[in-house]
Amino acid sequence: MLGDDNLYSKFVGFLKITLPLAALALMSTVFLFARAPTQDSAVPYAEIEEVAREPRLSGAQVSGVADDGSVIQLTAETARPLGDFLLVETMFASIDVVNGTHIDIRAGRGEINNATRIARLTGLARIETSNGYEMETAGITANLTTGQITSDGALEIQAPFGSLTAGQMIIETPEGMGGQVMLFQNGVRLVYTPQQ
């Protein structure tokens, strides 16, 4: 019996020395084989200086209510202030009109004048309405106070009754009316497709 106790004590004493040494060896290998930081993870100073020179907002949103009661929400992938203007990239506008119509507008870039509350969307702009109109034009001007939307040039339209082209489109709420009206003008050409 005395020999078994002595063997157990020697084994415990051996473990008291070897286990901490094994732990130390494992810890040293973690630090020894750890990867050094790469150059890619560092932010270049030139990029930091550029961001500091030109502050930007990502996912900027502006919303409000026009005089005619339309709820307007503008969203931009990036926005950058420049005086009274807010320059935006990848612009998306959502308008809920009082009569229940919903209008979505997408454009590549644009600017919002904070003083006059006018948004100018440039590049290819696409307009979709909940009552079945899909339009493309080279630019759009939206008055955020009155809710009036005007195309800057000619546009192509797919409508529920066919297709048409026009030199200009105006979406506005005439005085005394409860909803917005879409007005196509300047050389309107309609191709009527009868419903089946």
Automatic annotation (TrEMBL):
- Domain of life from the UniProt record: Bacteria
Key words, A-Z: Membrane, Transmembrane, Transmembrane helix
Q: Which residues cross the membrane?
A: 12-34
Q: What is this protein called?
A: Lipopolysaccharide export system protein LptC
* Species for this entry: Octadecabacter arcticus 238
